[in-house]
Amino acid sequence: SLLQRLIGRVIWQFQSSLSVSQANEILTSSTDLIQHEIDMRYNIIRYFAWLIPTLGFIGTVMGIGLALETAGQPPSLDDTEELRQWMMTLTSDLGVAFNTTLVALLLSAVIVFLMHIAQEMEEMALNRSAQYCLDNLINRLWQK
Predict the structure, then answer these.
(1) 8-45: per-residue pLDDT in tens?
(2) Phi/psi at 109 (nearest 5 deg)?
(3) Considering only CA atoms, which of 58, 50, 41, 34 is closest in space to residue 124?
(4) What b-and-e string marks burial along 13-27, b requiring 16 or more CB atoms within 10 Å of the CB?
(5) pTM
(6) Which residues contact 143 (CB under 8 A, 6 or more apart)?
(7) In the chain, which residue ranges form alpha helices assigned H by DSSP?
């Protein structure tokens, strides 16, 4: 599809102007526009890659808040079982708090990595298409 779009635009421009330089300019402009289209397709993914760690940090703040609430209600030091239960609840709340950030950061890292791979593949396809047009179309055009 990229190659078809580029070839169609270059041929149309050359037919209307009979100018190789204008055909080359339309190729350059078209590749810039397509590059911008490719970049815009990833905006929502970039947003989610930002949102996920943010939600993880919100979970951390909430977990720390719960842990502090639990810490603010210590049991009597005489009852060992109640003290152990209190410590388990406190450490569990803190564990959840920090695990939310860890999971969110790992998930975000995977999403960003996959996004970069996909975007690189699209940009490579665009570059190959533009190179094909230069080698097999623009360089073979001639003006009368």
Answers:
(1) 999 999 999 989 999 999 999 999 999 999 999 999 99
(2) -60, -40
(3) 34
(4) bbeeeeebeebbebb
(5) 0.77
(6) 18, 19, 20
(7) 2-17, 20-41, 43-71, 80-136
